[in-house]
Amino acid sequence: MITNVHNKEFLSVELRQLLESIGTLRTFQEGTYLFHQGMDAKEIYLIKSALVQVSLLSSEGEELMLRICKKDDIVGELTLFCDNPKFLLNTKVVETGEVFAINIESLQKELIINHTLSIEMMKWVSNHMRKFQSKIRDLLLNGKKGALYSTLIRLTNSYGIKRSDGILIDMPFTNQELAKFCGATREYVNRMLGELRKKDVLAIDSSGKILIKDLVYLKIKNNCENCTVEVCNMD
């Protein structure tokens, strides 16, 4: 039997309709950016069809990947309800598609009128701040190995398909991409994945997809707090 693992957090129909009604639909090509870290924040974005990577650039110029966003995800939401907001992160389009650009001032005016949608939007912002803090915590407290284990756990929650022999992460990732998720080098990830294969914790197929065979091992070694799937994911 094969089942999906991730219980995705969805926008309400009402909030999605509001964002679309006041947003401007734009097409972004692969390789372009919705915004860069440090830019003045005048808009947030609702993804209609694109695939977007969200990352943080360190003072040393190292890129730490934080999220993979797709249809119905909101990007740039951490700038809401702030004075003179600036974007905290970078957002790179990795698959061409359409995105609704929503003016922050216009959205805040609408949310003042509709308290129900205002509360929903604040919950969305709060949840993504928790995810952001959780990922940074994993890297700071558990080091690069813990960050890799955490990344694998989060990937199973976001893209995992349960099978009789484990959980398949149903999206291929290169070792370089995995390295960006945990602030490590590609060589380090190569070595760590090799060790996990020897311990029969995981396997990698010819397409680059990872099969997690012993998720409990990763959680124990990473002192996993068993956060909810809504927090522990890559969305």
Automatic annotation (TrEMBL):
<dbReference type="InterPro" id="IPR036388">
    <property type="entry name" value="WH-like_DNA-bd_sf"/>
</dbReference>
<dbReference type="GO" id="GO:0005829">
    <property type="term" value="C:cytosol"/>
</dbReference>
<dbReference type="InterPro" id="IPR000595">
    <property type="entry name" value="cNMP-bd_dom"/>
</dbReference>
<feature type="domain" description="HTH crp-type">
    <location>
        <begin position="142"/>
        <end position="216"/>
    </location>
</feature>
<keyword id="KW-0238">DNA-binding</keyword>
<keyword id="KW-0804">Transcription</keyword>
<dbReference type="GO" id="GO:0003677">
    <property type="term" value="F:DNA binding"/>
</dbReference>
<dbReference type="GO" id="GO:0003700">
    <property type="term" value="F:DNA-binding transcription factor activity"/>
</dbReference>
<dbReference type="Pfam" id="PF00027">
    <property type="entry name" value="cNMP_binding"/>
</dbReference>
<keyword id="KW-0010">Activator</keyword>
<keyword id="KW-0805">Transcription regulation</keyword>
<dbReference type="InterPro" id="IPR036390">
    <property type="entry name" value="WH_DNA-bd_sf"/>
</dbReference>
<dbReference type="InterPro" id="IPR018490">
    <property type="entry name" value="cNMP-bd_dom_sf"/>
</dbReference>
<protein>
    <submittedName>
        <fullName>Crp/Fnr family transcriptional regulator</fullName>
    </submittedName>
</protein>
<dbReference type="InterPro" id="IPR050397">
    <property type="entry name" value="Env_Response_Regulators"/>
</dbReference>
<dbReference type="Pfam" id="PF13545">
    <property type="entry name" value="HTH_Crp_2"/>
</dbReference>
<dbReference type="InterPro" id="IPR012318">
    <property type="entry name" value="HTH_CRP"/>
</dbReference>
<feature type="domain" description="Cyclic nucleotide-binding">
    <location>
        <begin position="14"/>
        <end position="86"/>
    </location>
</feature>
<dbReference type="InterPro" id="IPR014710">
    <property type="entry name" value="RmlC-like_jellyroll"/>
</dbReference>
